[in-house]
Amino acid sequence: MILRAKYAGLLTIVLVVQGGAYYEIRSRSELTPPAPPLSLFPAQLGGWQMAKGYTIDKEVQDVLRADDTLSRDYVNLAATAKASLLIAFFKTQRYGQAPHSPKNCLPGAGWEPTESGTIRIAVPEWQEPIVVNRYVVAHGEDKVLAIYWYQGRHRVIASEYWSKFWLVMDAIRYRRSDTSLVRVMVPVRDNDTDTATKTGVAFVQSLFPALLKQLPN
Asked: For the whole model, what pTM was predicted?
């Protein structure tokens, strides 16, 4: 009963926040900060080099509804490591556009979640470690590790609920609703999720300074 009441209260807060966000964003003029196209994102990130870029299918774009997207593979030859990067930038959420949680997108077609939680990563040019989501999905013996977060005005957010809360706050104080979804995926080799996590963390640490220059702050 206590847990049920807790989740009911949380759901109520989320609904209120969503309603507030809708009202604030739709009823006031909005500032949309300029952002360079993601196609200009660096091909070199520390010891990581872009290996391949992808065009996101129109069907996926129609569901995602992002204003700009980037999908690339990067490799670190020295570490014989690979990581895939997805960035989806939303310059406004005024008309219902919003990032979709990878927890809803990754499972399916035989892929099932096996691990879910958060981790802290110390990144350059940031005062304290960022808290991000760590998620593992499996298909038979194949596993993939995902690290993802939402990045907005001067903040990195793991929780979908807190992302909506800050949407309201930024809409009220700054007349902004821009946000980005950043997702890093690393293949899990030999069922070794610890090594995959270390690879993902190393890539995020190399990636983060470029994100700060690319995304509006």
From this structure: 0.82
